[in-house]
Amino acid sequence: MPRIRVLESWLADRIAAGEVVERPASVVKELVENALDAKARRITVELEEGGFKLVRVADDGEGMDPEDARLCLRRFATSKITSPEDLRHVSTLGFRGEALPSIAAVSHIEILTSDGEQATRVRAQGGSEPVAEPAAAPRGTVVTVRHLFYNTPARRRFLRSVAREAALCLDAVERHALARPDVAFRTVRDGREVLVLPAEEPRERAARVLGVDPETLLPLEASAQGLRVWGFVGVPHLALRNRSRQYVFANRRPIYSPVIIRAVEEAARTLIFTGHHPLCIVFLELPAGAMDPNVHPRKLEVRFADDRGVFLLVQRAVQAAYRSRPLLRPVPAAPAPLGEATALPRLEVREPEPGDLREPPRRLPPWRLLGQLLRTYVLADSPQGLLVVDQHAAHERVLYEHLLRSCTHHRAAQLLAVPVRVELTASEAAMLPGIADILREVGLEVEPLKGNTVLVRSLPAMPRRASPEALLRACLQEQVWDGASTGRQALERAASVVACHSAIRAGDALSEEEMRTLLESLAACEDPYTCFHGRPTLVMVPPRELEHWFLRR
Ligand SMILES: Nc1ncnc2c1ncn2[C@@H]1O[C@H](COP(=O)(O)OP(=O)(O)OP(=O)(O)O)[C@@H](O)[C@H]1O
Ligand SMILES: [Mg+2]
C-alpha cells in the first residue's frame, strides 16, 4: 500500500511558514519589506508583547486594488516577478510571494489596503480561506498580525522572552531604517514611541539609529568593475566585543555576509583590539545579476558572482576610511608604572592642525623599550598595554614612506661605483621599457645593453643594500603593473618592492639602538599600523587582555 501522500495545503503552508516566519522579528522584516517595495515614504511599526500579541505595519505606499488584495494571501502570489529571468534581476526586496501566506498560516491576519481609489479589508485565521470586503481607507496598506504562533505552540515555546523578541523586532526595523534613510520610520512598542526617524541623510540616519555622534562615523567609498561600496566605519573606540553593530546591505537589502565582514575586520585589524569588532555599515551596490538573492529561506544571505572582488573592494574602502582625515590619533596618556591597569587607549578624532605638516604626528602612545622576542618582534611597555611590533613589517612601512618622500625630492638614488650587469629573461626584459621611468624615480637606474642584458647604475638609497639583481627581478616580476606603469600607484608599487627587499627580516638580531630607531621612525609614519601588504606592523595587547590571561578579572 502506498505510503506517500501529498499534504493538504493548510499543512503544507504551516510547514513552509516555519521556514519564513521563525519569530516575531521575521514578521516585522517581511511586512516592512513589503511596505518598502510598495514605495512607502513613511512606515509605522507597532508591537505588543514582543510581537506575539500584535505586529502592525502601516505604510503610505501604492496599496492594492481589490483583486490583488484578495490574491495576496495565496502562496506564490506575487506582483514582483513573472519569469525566471526576473528572478536573476530582482530589484525588490520580495519576490517569492511567500511572506504573507506564511504569516497568515500561523496567526490572525488582517489587511486593510487602498490604491487611492478603492479600499479593501481582508481577514484570515491560521491559513483559512481569506474573507474580503470593501472598506474605507486612504492610499496605503495596514497589515495587522495578531496571536502569532497561536496554532503552533511548539514554535512559541522555542522562542525566548518577550523582551528579547521585542529587541529583535526593533533590530529588524533598524536594519531597514539604516538601509533607507530617505523613508521616515516610527516604531511604537506597547504604546510607547521608541524609534522616530524623519527622512534624512545617510550619515544622520546611521548616527541616530546607532546613538553615536555622526563625526565618529568615517565615510567609506570605493568602486571597481561595476561594484560600489559605500557606508561608514566607526572610529576604533566604538568597536564592541560582539558583532551586533555590523550591518551589511547588498542593493539595500540587509544581509549577513561573512565575506564582507571579514574584509572589514581584516582592514581594521591593527586598529582594533583582539576580540573586538569594528562598527560598520557597509552598502554594496552591484548590478542585478551579479548577486543571487534566492539562496536563503528568509532572504538573509545572498551569493555574489565574485566573492574575491567584493572582499578586496570592501577592504580597500575601509583601509582608506581609516587613513583619511580627520586623523585617528591615540591620545597620549600619562605614562603609568608597570603593572598598573590603565584604561583602554582612547582614540579621538580631530581635524589636522597646521602644525601637523611640519611635525610628523605621533601615532603611538609613549613607550619604553623592553627588548626583542624570537628575533622577530620588538616589545615595548606603554600605558595602553604591551606593544608588540613585527620588525620586518614595521621596517618595511618605515622604508616605504621614507622612499616615497625622498623620491619627490629626487634623493632616492645611490650611484654604484661599479655598475652591475644583470642577465634578464626575455619576459623580464620585455617588461623593462614600460617601467624604467618609475624604477628611476625610486632610485633604481637601469640601462639596457645588448639582448636581455642590462646595467644597473644606481640603487635606491636605503640603509641596507639589496642585491641589485634580486631587487630588479622582484620589480619586474611584480604582477600588478598591468599597464599602470606610470603615476602614483605604480610609484607606490615600486616603492613597496624596494622597501620589502631592503627591510630587516624576521630572524635578524637587533641592537637596542636599532630597535629604538625603528619604533621612533614607525611612530612618525603617516600610517604606522600596517605594512604595504596590509599586514599589521604592531599589535597592542591591552591591560585588560593581560588581566584576562591571569584571571585577574
Ligand atoms: N504593503 C503592501 N503594499 C502594497 N502591496 C503589497 C503590500 N504587501 C504585500 N503586497 C502585495 O502582495 C504580494 C504578496 O506579498 P508577499 O510578501 O507575500 O510576497 P512578495 O513580497 O511578492 O515576496 P516575498 O515572499 O519574497 O516577500 C506582493 O507581491 C505585493 O504585490
Ligand atoms: Mg514580501
Q: In which order are the strands of the major sheet placed?
A: 5-4-3-6-2-1-7-8
User: Which percent range describes the beta-strand content?
Assistant: 15-25%
Distance between the termini: 67 Å
Q: Write out the distinct hetero groups bound to the structure.
A: adenosine-5'-triphosphate, magnesium ion
Poorly predicted runs: 325-361
Helical content (DSSP H or I, runs of 4+): 25-40%
Main β sheet profile: 8 strands, mixed
User: Which architecture of the largest domain per CATH?
Assistant: 2-Layer Sandwich
**CATH fold name of the largest domain:** Heat Shock Protein 90
Q: What is the CATH superfamily of the largest domain?
A: Histidine kinase-like ATPase, C-terminal domain
Description:
There is one protein chain. The chain is of the alpha+beta class and 553 residues long. It folds into three domains: 9-197, Histidine kinase-like ATPase, C-terminal domain (Heat Shock Protein 90), CATH 3.30.565; 202-322, Ribosomal Protein S5, domain 2; 413-460 and 466-502, 2-Layer Sandwich (Ribosomal Protein S8, Chain: A, domain 1), CATH 3.30.1370.100. The protein contains 17 helices and 24 strands. The strands form six sheets. It has an eight-stranded mixed sheet. It has a five-stranded mixed sheet with strand order 9-10-13-11-12, with helices on both faces. Strands 18-19-20-24 form a four-stranded antiparallel sheet. The relative contact order is 0.08. The protein binds adenosine-5'-triphosphate (ATP) and magnesium ion. Magnesium ion is lined by residues 30, 33-34, 94, 99.
